Amino acid sequence: MNTRRRSSVVLSLDRDGVVAVWGEVSGGRVQIKAWVNARLPGEVDAADASAVGAWLRQTLRDAGITARAAVFAVPRANVVLKRLTLPRPSEPLPDGRGSFEDESDLAGMVALQMSRQLTMPMQGAVIDFLPIDLPDGTETTVLAGALPGDQVTWCRSVAKAAGLRVKGIHLRGEGAAALLAELSHRQDGALIGVAIAGDAVELVVIEEGRLVSSRGVDVPAGDDPAFAQRLAVEAKRTWMSYRGTRDSAEVECVAVLGSGARVEAVGAACGRELELPWSRVGLPGMVDLPEELRRADAVLPLVPLIGLFVGQLASREWLDFANPRRAPDRAARVRQAALLGVFAVIVVGGGSYVWGLNRLAALDGRIAAEKARNEKLVERYSQHVRQKARLEHLERWSGLGVDWLAHLEWIGDQTPTNGSALVDQIDGSLEATVSFASRERQYTTGKWSQQQESRFRVRGQSQQRTAADDLRGRLVADRVYRVDTTGPDVPNRFDFTLVTGLKRPDRPANGAAGERAADGGGGG
Q: Which backbone phi and psi does 238 adopt, to 5 degrees?
């Protein structure tokens, strides 16, 4: 347990306002000094980081908060969270220190897997991860999170304008997980935690004290029964989502943070919905609260933020998008060893030999720099090829389509206006495909192709069979459609299927237009 004195403000900031708690972690206790729960004024643009920061600076000052170190608690909706299972290599390191399973290997593997699964642009996104695998496993399971780079930039810009120093950017749900860790260790399986912070609710799944899944929902706080039941449904969705993951444990109970009538109602509703026992978990005794926060309704919106202080006290590991885990520069070890070798040669070999080695070291450095630059260029080129392929795919699909009105007008123009044949019903459908083929299985050497085929089923009645045959003859003569007769011939009925690959029908070049003019125009 860390006993060093640390003072900071934990704040949850969004477009609606800010909830902030100023606390100090020291001597095995958490002391809450001040707090604020304020709405963002209408005249302040939430997209303007400087304006929001100036307002936040004044709001914290009015609340008596003087801390300069800030921890941002971001909601689950802002973070892409993935549970990844990665292979665990068994090859020993050259120095015999075990396997290639250190943080640098995991960082590279996680970044690769997230780049394949993220729907948002990988460039600029901040990725961090937490190992959650079981001991002696053949695979490594991690909880990886990605926060868009513009949101990280926005947080830093707001902090700069408010005179704060960004100490960390964490998931708000990790505060709830820190408060429920002790209860989780007493369970044989997993537990589902519920943290109610006004309309924003954090739903977390914890195994052996570790956060393994999280959801954030906005449930408007209406009357207590309706609110509790709606939240119970969200808790069940969280349970179903977690049960669908690989190697998920059995959920043993539901735990609701806080106290009061609302917490009791939510706990009872979740217990009934999930058919599990439920527990109410309050703040631990190590947390010292001001007298004004000892009311259940006053402290409830602050509970997840206070949980982040409890996590600091326990030196808890969590996702930190301000200080993500990165792969260390392994080439630095090689360079250090080379420099030591050069120094030894300088001492033993003399001037000229030293000069030669220095020259060689300089060339090696340039080679390493060019290799690093080449790797970056290759990665950028690969990203460019992938983005170009996605764009081409979208453009191919966007190029498909049918001018339904033009086809209907065209078919209507072929129908006699003298009433000898009347169309009762026209049904249309479109079948389209976009495909990519490459012998080398590379985007740069392949070709895209697209096909579409629209079908129109024209059904109606005719006074004479010759009128239906005449209508079919016109459609065949126009060469716009392939005409198929559907069903048996009936004297006073006709049923045609028209197939074409054209978006719009072209005007005929066979004189059919003159025949329509003689009939006095078209009609359906």
A: -65, -45
- Helix, strand or coil, per DSSP, at residue 475: helix
pLDDT in tens, 68-106: 999 999 988 888 888 888 876 554 444 444 444 455 667
Work out the number of other CB atoms within 10 angstroms of the CB of residue 35.
26
Domain ranges of the chain: 6-313, 331-396, 404-519
Backbone angles phi, psi at 108, to 5 degrees: -65, -40
What does pTM read for this prediction? 0.59
Joined together, the tokens standing for residue 179 give 């408060």
Residues 318 and 171 sit within 8 Å (Cβ to Cβ)? yes
> d(Cα 510, Cα 494) in Å, to the nearest integer?
24
Paired with 87 in beta bridges are 139
Three-state DSSP at 437 gives strand
Retrieve residue 298's tokens: 């006053």
Task: Identify whether the C-beta of residue 295 lies closer than 8 Å to the C-beta of residue 259.
Answer: no
Return d(Cα 46, Cα 40) in angstroms, integer.
Answer: 8
Give SS3 for 30.
strand
- Which one, of 55, 69, 64, lies nearest residue 25 by Cα? 69
CA distance 369 to 375: 10
Mean pLDDT of the chain: 82
Alpha-carbon distance of 249 to 236, in angstroms, equals 15
Classify the phi-psi angles of 498: left when phi > 0, otherwise alpha if psi is within -120 to 50, otherwise beta: beta
- Tokens at residue 210, please? 């570790």
Between 521 and 252, where is the model more confident? 252
DSSP string, 260-293: SHHHHHHHHHHHHHHT--EEEE---TTEE--GGG
Euclidean distance between CA atoms 360 and 354, whole angstroms? 10
> CB 97: neighbour CB atoms within 10 A?
8
End-to-end CA distance of the chain: 84
Could you tell me which of 62, 54, 43, 52 has the C-alpha nearest to residue 13?
Answer: 52
The CATH number of domain 6-313 is 3.30.420.380 = yes
